[in-house]
Amino acid sequence: MSLFNNTEKPIGLASDHAGFQAKQYVLKILEEKGIPYKDFGAYDAESSDYADFAHPMASAVENGECYPGIAICGTGNGINMVVNKHQGIRGALCWTPEIAFYARTHNDANVLSLPGRILTENEIYDIMVTFLNTPFEGGRHKRRIDKIPLNPVGS
Ligand code: RB5
Questions:
Q1: Atom 10 of ligand 1 has which residue's CA nearest to it?
Q2: Which pLDDT tens digit goes with each residue over 45-59?
Q3: pTM for this one?
Q4: What span, in angstroms and rounded, lies between the C-alpha atoms of 94 and 125?
Q5: Which of 21, 23, 50, 52 to mutate to test the pocket of ligand 1 (most atoms within 8 A of CB)?
Q6: Angle at which helices 121-133 and 97-105 pack, to 10 degrees?
Q7: How far apart are CA 22 and CA 42, in angstroms?
Q8: Is 118 in the pocket of ligand 1 (CB under 6 A)?
Q9: Residue 74 Cβ contacting ligand 1 at under 6 Å
Q10: CATH of the structural domain 11-145, one choice from 3.40.1400.10, 3.40.630.30, 3.40.190.150, 3.30.390.30
């Protein structure tokens, strides 16, 4: 597995307690493949609030310290809502490789959000590999994603 966009930057990881086990699985895969990452927590399976870990991770992707991000909670919804509060983040909740493929080709998603309590490890693996290896298509999709931020540059 290789990163399409930028192998120099660490992948930002964030979860809550419900995504902790899945995040540890992702982290293990990244370690095995020699892909750098930065873990923003949660660091254990004790009950926690996903926003506490997702905001710092999203900020790190936004400011260029990390790329991309992977965010995991129980359903993926809560943590995806948090990362998408950041104007520079396009977080995509993905539960199949096909959704992950289009999240990259059409949306240039920079955070992959996953439902840790719903997916098996094999499913997470396939989604993650697709997300990390699929380039943005650009063209008409660039025009569309440029309209997503609330205060787009030049507006
Ligand atoms: C935690 O129980 C759960 O609500 C959280 O992980 C997430 O699924 C929220 O969207």
A1: 78
A2: 999 999 999 999 999
A3: 0.95
A4: 12
A5: 50
A6: 20
A7: 11
A8: no
A9: yes
A10: 3.40.1400.10
